[in-house]
Amino acid sequence: MITIKWKFQIVKLFIAVVLMGIVLMVLMFMGIMLSFGGVMGNTNSGGHGGLGLPLFISEEMMTAFFEVQEDLGIPVSSGIAQVIAESGFGLYGEHGVSGQGLSRLAHEYNNLFGIKYFPGAPYVSGSVNMSTWEHVGGANITITDGFAIYESVGDSIRHRGHMLLRQPYQTNISPFLNNDIGSYTIEQANDFAHGIWVSGWATDPVYVQKLIGHMEKYNLYRFDNMTLEDYQNQETILGDGTFASPVPPGTVLSSPFGWRQNPTGSGSQFHSGIDLVAPLGTPIYAADDGVVMFSGEGWNGGYGNLIRISHGNEYETRYAHNQTLLAKTGEVVKRGQVIALMGSTGDSTGSHLHFEIRLNGLAIDPLLHIKLN
Question: Which of 373, 296, 333 has its CA nearest to residue 41?
Fold first, then answer.
């Protein structure tokens, strides 16, 4: 005969099993969603206005950055890089659900740079107390401080420009101001970023490296030699979801989109693209008109030598494991243009192209959008 005590234990065990099942289901769902992030990479989508920028960089921001560059000589490149470093890839705003939004401070209070509140400061409309972390004495600590509130992101950008032309920043950045749009160099832009940090903007010891990394990844240097009019007259690429084959006839489809056995490890994995096999050096074509948002050699999360193209309307394509990269970051490419040569770099077992199509940052089946030759 089962006692009340044992009945209670059985009920507890049943509840525990049910809860464990729920947790496992949640973890499986998260695994599926994370696997959409790429073969092994992240899900950072570009394509603002078809110009290869992160989605949270708005037209209002760009207009203000160009106005401040033309009026004060503050280069656009470091400004966008600071937004990415200080506020980017957050969970707030239009694209926050996919990690393509802004921080809470930036979204709710238009403070793009984590600027502290000082009474009487221009462009500031109020203050808010928030917690953040700073690097002090070799360790990251959490602090609570008052941060500036702005009526618009433009005011935040203009206040940053006002601050940089005053001490303690002025001495360290004035030699690198962009007073000659059209001949501003990458070295000057990098030195400007270093001047911001050495003047005390951030406590992070690798802050400059982060800024330069963003400037290189998104080719932000191109904007330093544009006027606002130049920027507004740029060709805007607007993809419509129709793509051409990225490979020549005779290329073999070796692995489709979806779940598969891990080719370089154990267990199964979600394959966020398709694999197309051909000899080393086979030309790889841009599947549609677009702007190269990233072209870089290295491991790149398993992708190897990688090209990412923004096609506008939140469409992006990725071309992985290349032997040689021909298209450069920031370059406008046309459908059918040779952008790389096939290889076996990164997490690869042989010469092939791993090809992805993404919409709003999520991988979708390329075979629904292209017809292989």
Answer: 296
Helix (H) or strand (E) holding 18: helix 4-35
Neighbours of 135 (CB within 10 A): 14
Distance, CA of 238 to chain centre? 19
How close are the terminal C-alpha atoms of the chain, in Å? Answer: 72
Q: Domain 252-368: give its CATH architecture.
A: Distorted Sandwich (2.70)
Phi-psi region of 340 (alpha: psi -120 to 50; beta: other; left: phi over 0): beta
Q: Tell me the chain's radius of gyration from C-alpha atoms.
A: 24
Q: In angstroms, how far is CA 268 from the centroid of its own chain?
A: 27
Q: Are 301 and 67 in contact (CB under 8 A)?
A: no
The percent helix, strand, coil of the chain (3-state, each to 5) is: 35, 25, 40
Distance CA 352, CA 136 (A): 47
Q: What is the pLDDT of residues 169-226, one digit of tens each?
A: 999 999 999 998 888 988 999 999 999 999 999 988 999 999 999 988 777 888 998 8
User: Token match 């370059």: residue?
Assistant: 331
Q: Hey, what CATH topology would domain 52-232 get?
A: Lysozyme (1.10.530)
* Number of neighbours of residue 131 by Cβ within 10 angstroms: 8
